[in-house]
Design a protein that fits this description.
This protein is α+β, with helices and mostly antiparallel strands. It contains 12 helices and 14 strands. Strands 3-1-2-4 form a 4-stranded antiparallel beta sheet, covered by helices on one side. Helix 8 crosses helix 10. The longest helix has 19 residues. It is globular.
């Protein structure tokens, strides 16, 4: 059992088939992959990643042998047994390709476009011009954008980043937090919000976990949020979202009463919202959404090349899109100066 090792198998005939295989030696790993996908074994190679602890192999055999129906579970694909994950592999995207980082090395599974066609997808962004000229950016209204420092992230509202036992409990928690925010924030407000949409937008703006999800009408603002705090070791991303809708009527049902995903263009409660061309969507619990919520929509995921993060940040700065322009104030002026002189290290933001 201890003879089995983890190999990274490269299929030179079909690069999108690159994978981890558990086998006794590199020849066995290569032959297994070639036979399984119908490739010529001469076009498949395998390299050692690491020896595997016997306890990990034994656990995988006990759990998955009944499912596969195989008496001898090896050689076999390591991902079917979560072995790379058990060894600490991190999933990420590199140049729009699904990849793993294990023991400090990147293992890249070439995508269909690069592997079979010798081209890259038109959603891979290497410059500001790439984004603005992308054929995926249709010239029509109702497009919104979010920037993520990690392409693996999924757009979720603040309240949904925390587990809740039931949708009802989630809504109850939202109501309690909003009520407490109203009570405690009044002494600090120059103007009292007119309705719950404005109250919730204000709470969201100041960091309360809510059902509101930040968007912007500007793809360049989204690009800034994607690259601003990415350290260049993985792809960033932009989510482009189109939907046939109008902004919600704030005199109608409040944000906690709606059973549909709604677009909200917030009142300008700060210079930041204006500078960031801010939009919000209210995201009720998925289980509570009405069937009428199914309307025409389109989502496009852009991958921002990890190799071009610093260059894109410089391009955006040349265009006047900086922290100082999007977060007006002395704090941002100091942050920009520190960054220009190499003091600020990249961190991972929540994204917009």
């Amino acid at each position: 059992m201890g003879q089995h090792r983890l190999y990274w198998v490269t299929n030179h005939e079909s690069p999108n088939e690159n994978c981890f295989v558990v086998a006794r030696n590199p020849k066995e790993a290569a032959r297994f992959e070639a036979a399984h996908v119908g490739s010529d074994v001469q076009n498949v190679s395998a390299e050692l990643v690491t020896a595997l602890p016997p306890a990990l192999l034994e656990k995988a055999e006990k759990e998955f042998r009944p499912e596969s129906g195989r008496q001898k579970p090896w050689p076999w694909y390591a991902d079917h047994h979560d072995i790379p994950k058990a060894l600490g592999a991190e999933e990420l995207f590199l140049n729009a390709r699904p990849s793993r980082r294990l023991f400090g090395r990147n293992y890249v599974q070439h995508g269909l476009f690069e592997g079979l066609m010798g081209t890259r997808p038109d959603t891979l962004i290497r410059s500001v011009t790439d984004l603005l000229r992308s054929p995926k950016l249709k010239r029509q209204s109702n497009w919104m954008y979010r920037g993520h420092a990690d392409a693996k992230w999924v757009g979720r509202s603040g309240i949904d980043r925390h587990p809740h036992p039931t949708p009802t409990r989630r809504v109850e928690l939202e109501r309690r937090m909003l009520t407490e925010f109203k009570r405690r924030s009044r002494p600090y407000l120059r103007e009292i919000p007119r309705n719950d949409w404005e109250w919730l937008s204000l709470a969201q703006h100041h960091g309360l976990p809510t059902r509101l999800l930040d968007w912007t009408s500007s793809p360049l603002v989204a690009l800034y949020f994607a690259v601003a705090e990415n350290d260049g070791d993985r792809d960033a991303a932009i989510i482009a979202y189109w939907r046939d809708w109008n902004s919600v009527d704030t005199d109608g049902p409040g944000p906690l009463e709606t059973d549909k995903v709604c677009l909200h263009a917030p009142a300008i409660i700060s210079d930041r919202l204006m500078a960031q061309h801010a939009l919000l969507t209210a995201e009720p619990p998925v289980e509570d959404r009405s069937s009428s919520n199914a309307v025409d929509a389109e989502i496009v995921n852009f991958y921002v090349s990890y190799k071009r993060i610093a260059a894109i940040r410089f391009e955006l700065k040349q265009l006047g899109i900086t922290r100082g322009s999007l977060f007006p104030g002395l704090d941002s002026i100091c942050a920009d100066i520190a960054t220009d002189h190499g003091f600020n290290k990249a961190r991972r933001p929540t994204g917009r």
